[in-house]
Amino acid sequence: MRLVSVFILFSLLLLIASANKYFLYIFNIPIHYSLFVVENNNVWVDQKVIDIIKKRVDIKVDVRHFDKSKGKYLLNGICSDNNDKLVFRKNSETNIIDVNTLKAYNDAGKDERYKKDNYSATQTQSQYKVLEVKYFKLHYTNHQLGLILSGLLDNYYENIMNFFEFKYGEILNLGYKVPIYLAPTDDVYRSYNLVPDWSSGSLVFDFWRPTPSFVIYAHERDSFLIQRVLPHEITHLIIALYWKENALDYRTRFIQEGVAQYNEYRLLTGLEEIVVHPSIKIGFENLLYPVLDSKDSVKIFYENSLAFTSFLICRYGKFKYIQFIRKNRDSLDIVRNLNDVYLFTKFYDQDKVIKKIEDEWNYFIKNYNPTPLK
Q1: How far apart are CA 239 and CA 161, in angstroms?
Q2: Which of 16, 52, 257, 285 could form a cystine bridge with 305, CB 3.0-4.6 A?
Q3: Is residue 109 one of the residues assigned to a domain?
Q4: pLDDT in tens, 269-317
Q5: Taking a C-beta distance cutoff of 8 angstroms, is the pair 197, 186 a contact?
Q6: In this structure, is residue 167 part of a structural domain?
Q7: What would the pLDDT profile of 227-275 be if each residue is shown by its tens digit?
Q8: Where does a domain end: 102, 123, 151?
């Protein structure tokens, strides 16, 4: 029987709750939520955002667009005054606001990388646009998303490779660009092969074909698509390319889900060390052998997987964490691998190691303040 491994993002744990419903991109660069405010149809931005635009484009900024009480500029007003150079788009379906040059917007329609494709990933006949970048082949329908992701997908891949300190010769060379399908509707997403309808994104892969198969699926209208879903699934991809068949083992799931979420927040916040504690802590053995029989149990499992990754990285440093990741490529004795790297006990005894892990994790929770993510 052909084995297929499906890694799913059940629900994104929304640890970041800002007053902004929207996400802002300037020339495909994400702008920190503290630098802008959305009020109805207006977008107010700090001077720093105006400076970013001015570095790229020579624009006029009329004083009438500055609100002294807010200390901010009206971005859509400035773009309107400079509509021969800038394009402003606010999309309520994706919750994305982006500003790009008029040239970039027009060129995207002519770029050979942007092609139309009638190929259906499933039985649903949807017409996709196709964008090819260095590592991925993106299938999408929303032009705004395609333009933004054209500059981000490869950056995500290379950033996460650097996080793991992997060399390209160490990972499986697929010989093709990994396809990413962005579903325009819930019905299309549910029709994708092997993707549960309650997930937000999935990496589906199969090592038992003559050429291993990898594909990423996600919701095009998910407001966290760019910021969290794609970095999460790309992390799964890179781990699978490095661990190969060991990535199929159920005991490694908490490691994979933990570091995938950690990379979400690392890329979102720009911080390398992020302290996260679970709202309901479960024992380490429940991470190794989880029982995921309800939405609550899955949510708690994801929270604890992230928290355990945070514990290892913030308590002992990333260097040791990367050693641990490398250990699991050659051996699936997770507890022994942990003890080999972190020396929880001098002589190996599984029960004693697990008890020491619990003690150290509890100490971390009590003595390390969580990173403010709001």
Answers
A1: 9
A2: 257
A3: no
A4: 889 999 999 999 999 999 998 888 888 888 999 999 999 999 999 999 9
A5: yes
A6: no
A7: 889 999 999 999 999 999 888 888 899 999 999 999 999 998 889 999 9
A8: 102
Of the residues 40, 69, 102, the one at which a domain ends:
102
Is the pLDDT confidence value at 107 over 70? no
pTM, to two decimals: 0.78
The total number of residues shown for the chain amounts to: 374
Residue with tokens 């699936």: 332
- The tokens for 202 are 């999935």
Helix orientation angle between 334-342 and 350-367, rounded to the nearest 10 degrees: 60
Using CA atoms, how far apart are residues 142 and 166, in angstroms rounded to an integer?
33
Kindly state whether residue 162 falls inside one of the protein's structural domains: no
Give me the domain span that covers residue 296: 255-374
Residue 198 lies in a domain: no
Domain count, the chain: 2
